[in-house]
Amino acid sequence: MLSEIEPARKIDRDEYKEAERELRWQLLQAQFALQRKGRALLLVISGIEGAGKGSLVQRLGEWLDPRGIRTNTYWLHSDEEESRPYFWRFWRRMPPRGEIAVFLGSWYSGVLQGSIDRPHEERLQAAAGRINFFEDMLNADGAFVVKLWLQLDKEEQVRQLEERAGKQQNPRVTDRPYEIHGHYDRHVEVASQLLRATSTECAPWHVIDASRRRHRELQAGRILLAAMQAELGHSANTPQPVAFTPATDTARLDAVDLTQKLGRGKYKRELRDLQSRLQDLAWEAYREERSVVAVFEGWDAAGKGSAIRRVTHAIDPRLYHLVRIAAPTDEEQRHHYLWRFWRQIERDGRGTLFDRSWYGRVLVERVEGFATEQEWQRAYDEINEFEAQLVEHGSIVLKFWLHISPREQLARFRAREEELHKRHKITEEDWRNRDKWPQYALAVEDMLEHTDTPHAPWTLVAADDKPWARTFILRRFCEAFEAALGVPR
Amino acid sequence: MLSEIEPARKIDRDEYKEAERELRWQLLQAQFALQRKGRALLLVISGIEGAGKGSLVQRLGEWLDPRGIRTNTYWLHSDEEESRPYFWRFWRRMPPRGEIAVFLGSWYSGVLQGSIDRPHEERLQAAAGRINFFEDMLNADGAFVVKLWLQLDKEEQVRQLEERAGKQQNPRVTDRPYEIHGHYDRHVEVASQLLRATSTECAPWHVIDASRRRHRELQAGRILLAAMQAELGHSANTPQPVAFTPATDTARLDAVDLTQKLGRGKYKRELRDLQSRLQDLAWEAYREERSVVAVFEGWDAAGKGSAIRRVTHAIDPRLYHLVRIAAPTDEEQRHHYLWRFWRQIERDGRGTLFDRSWYGRVLVERVEGFATEQEWQRAYDEINEFEAQLVEHGSIVLKFWLHISPREQLARFRAREEELHKRHKITEEDWRNRDKWPQYALAVEDMLEHTDTPHAPWTLVAADDKPWARTFILRRFCEAFEAALGVPR
Fold first, then answer.
1. Cβ neighbours for A138, distance < 8 A, ≥ 6 positions apart
2. I need a surface site. Which of A45, A253, A372, B367 has the fewest CB within 10 A?
3. How far apart are CA B10 and CA A399, in angstroms?
4. Domain pair A13-233 / A251-485, same fold
5. In whole angstroms, what is the distance from residue B299 CA to residue B282 CA?
């Protein structure tokens, strides 16, 4: 892939100026049009060391309108980044709809560097799969990815690096140019593999001979322009038919034994014991730098809030962050829906507890029609991938569905209306949701069917009896910690 | 201050339950009322080690509605925090209007710990002054701060810490309880000083004898409730008259010699030399971990954008972040106006360049009436304090006002209308702003008068001749770097 590229042409100053003028004008028009359409653009600039990636980024930044562009560089990492799943660092820099993010260093950097240091074909293919999923997902959401690879041949790389060695420059380049050069062949081999594996229909790689500045800049500008114009020709969110057969019964929910109960005396003892056990385990997880991500979903009035309080009561407040999911802010609405969950993920050693979560996409957003059919249907895979990344990073993922009977819900709604300090918890909306019980039940069944994965299984909680539900959840927490930490019970 | 506290009373279970029920209900009402009024609450929980701060935070979290509360803990710092001015870590966790942020560990922690380790009366007073300014500023913006200090006497602290020593706990406590105890007297002395110095009218400290859990919780709840209710009684933004005499002439602007020019040949040479010098200096600043914060303000069409490009062209894109200030997002609107600038500040060793900035508060927001008189008048001090914090942290602060004559502006507006790829840069609004030239000029004079500080001086740039302006700015950049880095020219 890197050997058959069009060689750089010598371009004189006047030709360059003329072409630049025209290109610049067209790029601006395309940028404004994309802004109006609310399409986000991710521009990945990658390539071999010494090829002039930095100066290309500067040039493109001059051509485009700097309002609505942000350049993101990944060359030194922060501990905040390193103590979260790898893609967190990119999610935090996702461009909002209508804006452009330039990535100098990107989700390709890690796998490239890793594979040069220690080649491993399978790992590279797995990483490529993850990357393709990521880019496809953004694409389906109305963003698009343009990827440029700047290439130099062996002799040219030496020449470029030597020329710069005298100047003060990126120490990563100047401190070890020959070392990099020594790896030239392997670098090219690995990069070829990776580019082949990640050149997809929606986000192909474009390879540019970077040996001449003017050629490199005009080529990059033209490729970018063509990609923008092609994107403007498409309608957003091309419907991608997903083969999906919705649930017709609620067998999994029906199988929950709602008669399970715990007596008051036993409850008090168990609660105390479990909370004390969880307290210690949370500190142990902190020391072992393991994080937990816990999702609480369930029917209205199923007791999510009070169950969460029993959990948080056991954990030092320094060790967890509780996130209540309400309506998204407008910054959140300008991003892929997973963005607002990614941004909440805590660092290693700490917990993030979600009172409602990303599953809203396939529950309330589906039932109420806030998400299109394509959107909620592709969300199952997106969610599974998100959780897989958490687990792969070392997080413990727990997901609870608190199940109650319609009868019990009715009783609780009425009780809330009668109790002064609970009255705020019951609204018209709760009654409306209750009327849609059957639709929600089917959505829950589909959710269980598609997201009950081996790495992040669902725990169905019989919650008609609150003491039973609370201790059940606490026990699951403890067991998950014990298993992950190798603590003997 | 810590010796004359009301001793904890023994409260039996029934009395506690009864009081809790009532308190909880009232706290919820107050919370909802504050939400409706859009008032943010910062609750600082501080005190001596072993006093049960963590468990108090949990209890308050149970009493209040967890929607709209976030608990922030500061006990381990991240490198992202440590490579920015101290208050950045608090600004990033400011509650939006209508919400509550609990701070376990806060802006008091640093000075307290520092003063216990190495007492220094003057430093403590200076830190207290900074804190008071911070809290007053939030208060003026409609937020309010409630501060609780949990105190134990010497014997009780030993008892509490020994009791916990068996359990797995916060390693900071359990690993060295006696060491802390050994410092008891000094801790109390320093804390007393600090509490006295920071007990202001708008945010007094409340000290609680923490030796009995029920007493501690009810006391804390009642103090919080009283503060919330008092705040609900006030109208937001109590007008604080500021003695302010607006400028009546434009002497400083008029003194700029707009006839200064640079010929084309000289410009090219100087530009190349300055950019090459700046490139090296930016890398040197990176190695020395010094950051630069540069503000570009000026008349419409004064050439801010193209001057910035001459600067960024010289700096590796890995080393700076360019921020174009446009309309605030709604997340930004729900915070103090400085929040959206704080959130952009880059880490040590890198630059943050602002194309328009926080000075909008005293320019466009003043002239167009987007900010009230009190708001823009107090902004001068707020801005000076913000910049002082940057400088104290080690950042190089540069502020440029690009000055042109009304005649030159008119010529440039007309030229923009004629040039295809510049036409998007001229709008109706630009013409409207031009009509308000005299009002803007007076606002600029006031800005220069009040924010041209020794630590962060303004640089007035004669910008009728673009080559002159660009090289002038680049030279100022280089000189500021050289002075800060001790690089001989």
1. A40, A42, A94, A144, A145, A336
2. A372
3. 42
4. yes
5. 28
- Length of chain B equals 489
For residue A177, report the phi and psi dihedrals to the nearest 5 degrees. Answer: -65, -40
Can you give the pLDDT at residue B174? 45
Least confident interval from A156-170, A303-317, B190-204, B395-409? A156-170
Q: How distant is the Cα of B369 from the closest Cα of chain A, in angstroms?
A: 25
| Residue B236 pLDDT greater than 60, yes or no | no
Query: A173 versus A448: which is more confidently predicted?
Result: A448
**Hey, is B42 helix, strand or coil?**
strand
Specify the pairing of strand B292-298 against strand B144-151: unpaired
CB contact under 8 A, A331 and B329: yes
Q: What is the pLDDT of residue A208?
A: 96
Contact at 8 Å (CB) between A418 and A110? no
What does each C-alpha distance from B2 to B52, B210, B231, B287 come to in angstroms?
17, 12, 26, 46
Q: Which residue has the tokens 């100026």?
A: A17
Closest CA relative to residue B419, chosen from A316, A28, A404, A16? A28
Q: Which CATH superfamily is domain B13-233 in?
A: P-loop containing nucleotide triphosphate hydrolases (3.40.50.300)
Token representation of residue A379: 């969300």
Where is B109: in which H helix or E strand?
A: helix B107-117
Residue of chain A nearest B327, judged by CA positions: A67
Q: Establish how many alpha carbons lie within 13 A of residue B379's alpha carbon, considering only the half-sphere containing its beta carbon.
A: 23
Angle at B37 between CA B31 and CA B39, to 5 degrees: 70
Q: Give me the pLDDT at residue B171, please.
A: 54
Concatenating the DSSP letter of every residue in A351-408 gives EEEEES-GGGGGTHHHHTTSS-HHHHHHHHHHHHHHHHHHHHHT-EEEEEEEE--HHH
Residue whose token pair is 């193209």: B306
Mean pLDDT of chain A: 91
- Tokens 């999923």 belong to A133
A170 pLDDT more than 60: no
Helix crossing, B184-198 with B121-140: angle to 10°? 40
Cβ(B284)–Cβ(A171) under 8 Å?
A: no
Q: For residue B305, give the chain A residue with the closest CA.
A: A66
In this complex, which of A58, A169, A326 lies closest to B67 when CB atoms are compared? A326
Query: Which residues in A lie closer than 8 A to residue B24 (C-beta atoms)?
Result: 421
pLDDT single digits (tens) B67-126: 889 999 887 778 889 899 999 999 999 999 999 999 998 999 989 988 888 888 899 999
CA-CA distance, A342 to A326, in Å (whole number)? 15
Q: How confident is the model over A197-251, as pLDDT tens digits?
A: 999 999 999 999 999 999 999 999 999 999 999 999 876 555 566 678 999 999 9
Summary mean pLDDT of chain B: 91
> Residue B440 belongs to what H/E stretch?
helix B437-451
Tell me what pLDDT residue B472 has: 98
Q: How far is B177 from chain A (nearest CA, A)?
A: 17
Q: Where are the domains of chain A?
A: 13-233, 251-485
Q: A101 pairs with which residues across the strands? A: A42, A70
| DSSP assignment letter at A183 | T
User: Which residues touch B49 (CB under 8 Å, ≥6 apart)?
Assistant: B157, B161, B173, B177, B180
Residues B43-63 have pLDDT tens digits of: 999 999 889 999 999 999 889
DSSP assignments along B298-311, one per residue: ESTTSSHHHHHHHH
Mutate to test the interface with A, among B280, B318, B340, B346 (most CBs of A within 10 A): B318
Q: Assign domain A251-485 to a CATH class.
A: alpha beta
Q: Residues B251-272: what's their mean pLDDT?
A: 96
pLDDT of res. A238 = 56
Contact predicate A19/A218, CB 8 Å: yes
Name the pTM for this structure.
0.90
Sole residue written with tokens 């328009």: B356
